[in-house]
Amino acid sequence: MSNQTKVVEKKYLLSFILITSLFALWGFANDITNPMVAAFKTVMELTNTKATLIQFAFYGGYATMAIPAALFAQRYSYKKGVLLGLGLYALGALLFYPAAQFQMFGFFVGSLYVLTFGLAFLETTCNPFILSLGSKETATRRLNLAQSFNPMGSFLGMTVAARFVLANLNADKHLDAVGNKIEFSTLDNATKALDRLHDLAVIRDPYVALGLVVLVMLVIIAAVKMPNTTNKEQMHPLQSMKRLFQNKVYRTGVIAQIAYVAAQIMCWTFIIQYAENLGLTKEAGQYHNMLAMGLFIVSRLASTFILKYVNASQLLMWFAIGGITTTTCAIFIVGLPGLYCLVATSVFMSLMFPTIYGIALGNVGQDTTLGSAGLVMAIVGGAIMPMLQAMIIDLGTVGFLPAVNASFILPLLCFIVIAFYGKYSSKILAKD
Fold this sequence. Notes:
Blueprint: H1 13-33, H2 36-43, H3 48-51, H4 53-75, H5 78-94, H6 96-102, H7 105-132, H8 139-147, H9 149-165, H10 189-223, H11 237-246, H12 248-269, H13 271-277, H14 282-306, H15 312-332, H16 336-349, H17 352-360, H18 368-377, H19 381-393, E1 397-398, E2 401-402, H20 403-406, H21 409-431
Antiparallel strand pairs: 1-2
């Protein structure tokens, strides 16, 4: 096999390994944060809607910082963008310590906002960096391979959330004389204060540890020489934006990416509420989330292999149709089979983010860095849609369905958008 057909060439291998490790780091941050919506809802006595400010801040940070990150990377280098991203990531994580001391929900939200400034830098720089480390014909496969490590970090984040956070929250452990759960909101103020002090420390500790790990990675990457593959020819953002907007595959790809991120965050955040509605605990709901992530990882690796033989746009369309099927079942089947269908949705989501990313950036040429920022800004879908879903869940019931079931109409609509993009991009690219 020639160097031109290798997914990762030997000269880029060390850089590929180090940058790929960061995919796991931001995966960990994503999926230790999703269950925090349920944790903060109980500990801080919030509605589902207000608790999703966690997601709004987390994914809103991407929208705020994606374009500045792209301009920074283009002005300097991918590596410097990565280093700045790691610095902001560590700062946001370490701010959880004073947030827990002050016991202010707004402080936690602000800390996550800063943390995701760092993640925006990392995703805006790491994704195109991976695409640039080798030939264009293997770029989408290379990004899928790198992205395969993202759910591994996500799985670890979910495990920490389940075993070290949700399982250790005192707010969920109060029982009456006959063993029935006592709602936290009904406890006396002194008991609530003690529980809140303990539980916020439980939430805090994984983030502080994460911040220290990120600082170690910053030092390692700073010490390693990496290829400067940033395209420096295009330095006119307005002209670049105009060309990107005129590119049909890219323009619709941003819309598809908004839909995908929204669907992913909704399916993984509210699986706990779906399980609780069936009488399961938060911890049990999170274990179902971990099962979903396990399926996601296996499917991501399998789809990376399949992409060697199947057109990326067509495979994306068929996976989206699979997502449409499973979310429809999750809506209308009330009971454990519906929960299993929701878990199975992760099989079909596995392919989507890197494949949409690779298709959309496949023919943007010199506008890759700013184009990457647009696709990272699409992560804002994870800030807005979960809040809309939470509003539906807070209704209690919708017609003959539990509101939590009915709320999954939103991910269903997202998968319809993605299926359309798979078919549309296949048609457009076939003409080129």
